[in-house]
Amino acid sequence: MEKIKPFSKELEDWLKSNKPKTLLSLDKVFAEKSFAVIFVILLAIPALPVPTGGLSHLFEAIAILIALQMVVGRRNLWLPMRWRGVSVGKTMRSAVMPKLISLIRWLEKYSRPRMARLMKSSVLLWFYGLVVVIFSATAFVAIPFSMLDTLPALGVVLMSLAIILEDFLIFLVGLTAGSVGLGLVIALGKATFDILSNFFG
Question: Using CA atoms in the order 136, 139, 142, 147, what is the torsion angle rounded to 10 degrees?
């Protein structure tokens, strides 16, 4: 029986291959789990403490568009023409992807299928898409350079890895991390609004 290749190895092989490093190529290579793989890569930039090169907001916006497709039940990736050529650039290849692959390898050591049937259910995938929209939007509106985008983005990355690894425990960890980040952004936003209201009131 052929041994199943770990996802970290699949991702590393794709990165080292001569195949185009675009979002559409990911859809072709990773098939039914392509949405989750794309979210992992798109949200890795704001989730990891590395220079973004100004890509965070673009990738968060793309993640929102793709997640909305999941919410409405679409299972084939669609992107506007201007985004179809978005690729994994030098920043991603040299700074983000190695750290991301290391994180995935670490998770794979402790991960195992937990509630695998639930992880494949249409209800959970719909909920997952909705949460990705919320967390990606939260990361998008977070104050720049405040690190407030880190937890919502990390939440998406962990939930997406949970879908790939079929591990409900990791999904819950990601949901918790993203929810904490969402709460912090809301709390800070309210505090800022109250201060400005008192100042100008």
Answer: 170
